[in-house]
Every structure is written in structure tokens, then in C-alpha cells.
Amino acid sequence: MAKILDGRKISKEIRADIIERVDRMKEEKGIVPGLAVVIVGDDEASHVYVSMKAKACKSVGFHSEEHKLPESTTQEELLNLIDHLNNDDKINGILVQLPLPKHMDENLVNSHISPQKDVDGFHAVNMGNLTLGEESYVPCTPKGIIELIKRTGTDMAGKNAVVVGRSNIVGKPAAILLLKESCTTTICHSKTKNMELFLKEADIVVAAAGVPNLIKGHMIKEGAIVIDAGTRKLDGKLVGDVEFDSAKEVASWITPVPGGVGPMTITMLLENTLEATEKLWNSRP
Ligand SMILES: NC(=O)c1ccc[n+]([C@@H]2O[C@H](COP(=O)([O-])OP(=O)(O)OC[C@H]3O[C@@H](n4cnc5c(N)ncnc54)[C@H](OP(=O)(O)O)[C@@H]3O)[C@@H](O)[C@H]2O)c1
């Protein structure tokens, strides 16, 4: 029977450390880390995420700003706001909540954020540096996934890792990070033939497909670490990509949905914002 990787508990521990660092920063330097979250339009789920992020910021003593823009906002207006935030000393991290309305180019908007304030890690400079193995801001969900695997105490070097999903937000950066940990890494996607063949060989499975119960217990190798980033509503319940009940009988560690990867994502956003603040102030004379 698998042990549960409790994202809520691990997040709480990390946030306690963040609070200490923020208090020290305020006391010694009079600095308060600041995060600005920008949202365009009325997408209900996106508004819930934004208020969760603002609440998390307040809970660790950050300055936080929410910029809620109507659906009719032009791309130029959004870029002007980003320019303003790029030059605002109170703001150390900027996040533009996705998805953006169809009349906007997400890559262009993300690339307008100063790479030094790109705490989501989606800017081409940060993505490029991540791929090159240079210092960069790491996208929050994949960063949280690696942190969860580390908490199992497993030495990742040489392990077979399979990532299901190849999006720029989760799958691709998660695979790059696993490679950085010296895993032998395979990416599966919707065109992969016989995914089970790859899963059966995987010591570490990262599921990020957004397909409820795609991966079942019989597809997983005995003793695998199973990290489920998937979240979809099924009959009013939030479910992951992994069929939890069958997978927990085979895996050594498994994340629940909800309460696994989700809480870690916001905690990693706080960590990236604090890191951005520390870097900025350490670089000043
Ligand atoms: N917990 C969190 O904080 C958090 C954060 C972000 C996302 N998520 C969740 O993570 C999941 C993935 O998000 P995303 O933004 O990466 O989604 P996405 O952009 O839709 O990407 C899904 C990926 O899964 C692949 N895929 C789809 N069906 C598949 C199948 N049957 N077999 C194998 N691969 C398949 C797709 O392959 P193709 O490329 O071939 O289409 C694609 O690469 C979603 O459930 C999302 O809600 C959670």
C-alpha cells in the first residue's frame, strides 16, 4: 500500500520557512516582497485561482495586488499595465493568469514581463535558461512536483521517469527538471502508442494529461512513485489522471487529488517571488 505524499502538509512546512525569511527581510532591510496578479475577463475558475494566490500572499506577509481587467481590454492596454508593473519597485513578481481572451497572444504577453519578475517562469528567457541548465525561475507546478519527489527521500539519479503530457506549463518543464535530476526521462502524449509499455518501466510517473483516471493501477510498476498533477471535474468531484484506488495498491508513494500537487503550486509561486525579491536586493549596492 502506497504512502501518501501530502501536498498540504509539505506546503505548510515550506510556508513556515517563507514566513521566517520574510520577517527577517522586513526586520533587517525594511523590504516586503510584492506580487502582482493580473487577470483579464470573467473566467470563474481563473478568478478563484487569483483570489487563492492573493490569500496565500497575505498569509506569508507579502504585499499583493490584484489587477482585474474586463474581457474588452486590448492587448496594448495589458502590455502598458505590465510595463508599469515592470517598473514598480513594490512589485517583485508579476503573474498573468491564463488563459487570456482569444484576442491576445499569450506568448507575447508573457514575454513582456521582465524576466527578473517572471515568477511563473513562462518567459522565453527563463524557459531557455531552464533548458540550458542555467539559473532561471522554474514554472511553479513542475517545481512543486520535483519537491514532492524529493520529500520521498528517493535518489532520482538513474531512475526511469515517465511524464504523461507535454504542455509548456507542466509536462515539458517537468521532464526537463527530471532530466536535470539525472532521471532517464520519457515523455508520453496523446499520440504515444501503447503508453502502458513505458509506464510499466517507470520508477517515477508524473501525470499531467487532464484526462480523469487515465492511468490505472495495473499499468504502473510495483513500487513506483506516482505524482498526479491532473485535475478535472467529474460528476462534481475533482479527480486526477490516476485512478487512485487501484494505483495506491501498487505504488510506493502517491499524491492525492485534491491535496497533492495543487497546494504545492501556490507555495512554489510564493517561493519564486521571495527569491526574486532576495535577488533584486542582493544585486543592489
Ligand atoms: N495542480 C495544479 O496546480 C495544476 C497546474 C496546472 C495544470 N494542472 C492540471 O494538469 C493537467 C494538465 O494541464 P496542462 O495545462 O498541461 O494541459 P494541456 O495543455 O491540455 O496538456 C495536456 C497534455 O496531455 C496530453 N494528453 C492528452 N490526452 C492524453 C492521453 N489520452 N494520453 C497521453 N497524453 C495525453 C496532451 O498531448 P498532446 O500534446 O499530444 O495534445 C498534452 O500534451 C490538467 O488537468 C490541469 O488542470 C494542475
Automatic annotation (TrEMBL):
Pathway, per record: One-carbon metabolism; tetrahydrofolate interconversion
Stored Pfam families: THF_DHG_CYH, THF_DHG_CYH_C
Any one cellular-component term (Gene Ontology): cytosol
UniProt GO MF annotations: methenyltetrahydrofolate cyclohydrolase activity; methylenetetrahydrofolate dehydrogenase (NADP+) activity
Cited InterPro entries: Aminoacid_DH-like_N_sf, NAD(P)-bd_dom_sf, THF_DH/CycHdrlase, THF_DH/CycHdrlase_cat_dom, THF_DH/CycHdrlase_CS, THF_DH/CycHdrlase_NAD-bd_dom
Domain Tetrahydrofolate dehydrogenase/cyclohydrolase catalytic positions: 5-120
Statement: the UniProt record of this protein carries the keyword Metal-binding: no
Residue intervals of the Tetrahydrofolate dehydrogenase/cyclohydrolase NAD(P)-binding domain: 139-279
Catalytic activity annotation: (6R)-5,10-methenyltetrahydrofolate + H2O = (6R)-10-formyltetrahydrofolate + H(+); (6R)-5,10-methylene-5,6,7,8-tetrahydrofolate + NADP(+) = (6R)-5,10-methenyltetrahydrofolate + NADPH
NCBIfam families to which the protein is assigned, alphabetical: PRK10792.1, PRK14186.1
Purpose: Catalyzes the oxidation of 5,10-methylenetetrahydrofolate to 5,10-methenyltetrahydrofolate and then the hydrolysis of 5,10-methenyltetrahydrofolate to 10-formyltetrahydrofolate.
Key words of the record: Amino-acid biosynthesis, Histidine biosynthesis, Hydrolase, Methionine biosynthesis, Multifunctional enzyme, NADP, One-carbon metabolism, Oxidoreductase, Purine biosynthesis
SUPFAM superfamilies: Aminoacid dehydrogenase-like, N-terminal domain, NAD(P)-binding Rossmann-fold domains
Family: Belongs to the tetrahydrofolate dehydrogenase/cyclohydrolase family.
HAMAP family cross-referenced by the UniProt entry: THF_DHG_CYH (MF_01576)
Provenance organism: Anaeromicrobium sediminis
One of the GO BP terms on file: methionine biosynthetic process
EC number: 1.5.1.5, 3.5.4.9
Entry binding sites for NADP(+): G165, R166, S167, T231
Subunit structure: Homodimer.
Signal sequence region: none
Domain of life assignment: Bacteria
Protein's recorded name: Bifunctional protein FolD
